[in-house]
Amino acid sequence: MSALVSVQNASKQYSKQSEGLHDVSFELRTGQVLGLLGHNGAGKSTLINALLGAHDCNGTIRINGFEPITQRDKIMQSLSYISDVNVLPGWMTVAQLLDYTEGVHTGFDRSKADELLRQTDIKPRARIKALSKGMKVQLHLAVVIATNTQILILDEPTLGLDLVYRDTFYRHLLEWFHDGERVLIIASHEVSEIEHLLTDVLILKQGRTVLQSSMEAISEDYFILDASDEYRAEIEAMKPLSSQKGLGSTKWLLHSHFSEQAETLGAVYGVKLADLFLALQKEAV
């Protein structure tokens, strides 16, 4: 099965002092959900813009076999993007947006969009600029789902939304994802919120990859040890990635090859992606 998204040695230099991306590589096939993680300035937006064909970079990028800049019209037939900033035309009504999309996109299924919007409080005659942020995100997702896109990139899509809108958004998103051969990329600061959705993770720091792994491998490669402080010297010899002080004990993030030694020192738990993300962000690149 060929990759729907292929990135090989992608690099972007903004100036002699500023490197936006350095030698990033990954591939995504049908059924994969990639969490693209990193603090502000890590290179997430640079990578997303390169995938969208918004700027050039060194290396090779292919979306469904097409080059994002020279064949941008081709990639947009199978690629969609939703950001935290509303890009829908505020002067249009909801119905006008659907009419327009139906006219310019041959793959748009108007009945599917109408069906999705009937499950919301969004009215066809409502002006887009009058909608709440949560409603705008729901509308955008409904349009994307109705175009039957194969590859969807989400950039902080639920930023500023309340729990009800977040729950509805992710429910519709998962229904869309499991209804076809799709690839999903989610860039987010809300690591705990998206962890259960992911099959894979790519963590960037200062434009460089600090972790690229499947979620399954992460659970096999790392663990948390909750141990009494009397064992501090022994545990520090295992070179923990991080530690969190508690009442009379400390939680340590360790590599799995120390699991046998750790079992005799305290309680062992599975690692959460947020724990690993924070630990790697504190390490030097």
TrEMBL record:
Pfam families reported for this sequence: ABC_tran
Which SMART domains does its entry note? AAA
Q: Which residues form the ABC transporter domain?
A: 5-231
Nucleotide-binding listed as a keyword: yes
SUPFAM superfamilies, alphabetized: P-loop containing nucleoside triphosphate hydrolases
**Keyword terms:** ATP-binding, Nucleotide-binding
Q: Which InterPro entries match?
A: AAA+_ATPase (IPR003593), ABC_transporter-like_ATP-bd (IPR003439), P-loop_NTPase (IPR027417)
Q: Which GO terms describe its molecular function?
A: ATP binding
Note the superkingdom of the native organism. Answer: Bacteria
| Record protein name field | ABC transporter ATP-binding protein
